[in-house]
Design a protein that fits this description.
48% helix, single chain, 86 residues
Length: 86
């Protein structure tokens, strides 16, 4: 299963939803980068993704985007393939 990295904050409901969805798909470990605790990491996230909102999710080297994009991948069946392929 691919490595999952998620930029998040401590009070983001979409981050919680994303984490639940990933766990439901068998992801046991999510590397979380808390941008609310370290503001300089939000700047790094924005430079890397071009976005300022959380969550920003990576599966391996693939930038999924936020929760809406993750849910769309789940709905289309592509999330399982992405998690298995990496």
């Amino acid at each position: 299963m691919g490595k999952v990295l998620m930029y998040c904050t401590g009070v983001c409901p979409y981050c919680v939803r994303a984490e639940r969805l990933l766990h439901a798909r068998g992801v046991e470990e999510i590397e979380k980068i808390r941008v609310d605790l370290q503001p300089e990491l939000r700047m790094a996230m924005m430079e890397k993704t071009g976005r300022r909102t959380v969550p920003q999710i990576y599966i391996g080297a693939y930038h999924v985007g936020g929760y809406d994009e993750l849910a769309a991948l789940e709905h289309s069946g592509e999330l399982a393939m992405l998690l298995e392929s990496d």
